[in-house]
Structure prediction request, 143 residues.
Amino acid sequence: MKPVAPSGGATTIPGSGVDRVTPYALFVLAVIVVVGMLNNIDRHIISILAEDIRADFGISDTQIGFLYGTSFAIFFAVVGLPMGRMADVVSRRNLLGAGLAFWSAMTAFCGLSGNFAQLAMFRVGVGFGEVTASPCSQSLLVE
Prediction:
């Protein structure tokens, strides 16, 4: 029986249930794992630094709560579905790379912010970039 190669790079031998994974497929998986780790680190860095941020900017519990979750929840709810559709239409690899570059830049700008308004704006930017990670990663894994 001749092996069949699906689009994801694994070679399947029909009827055997055995997949041989190519080095490229392992590379793609490794990249997706690293992107997921960066996604979570960038998302949760505010919770690690909350007390220092509160002391530096003199912000309230409500404001720090906005930085924790609301800034992300707004963009995940509003932009999540259109971004999922975009992941089906454009190059997932390029979209994921652009999202990673954008949210990394926004995370760096968070470190340069001088007041709550700037930090909140950059945190919304982080959420905007990170919303590309889930649909692109899941689509790339299935491919």
In short: The chain has one domain: 31-142. The chain is about 75% helix and 5% strand. The first strand starts at residue 11 and ends at 13.
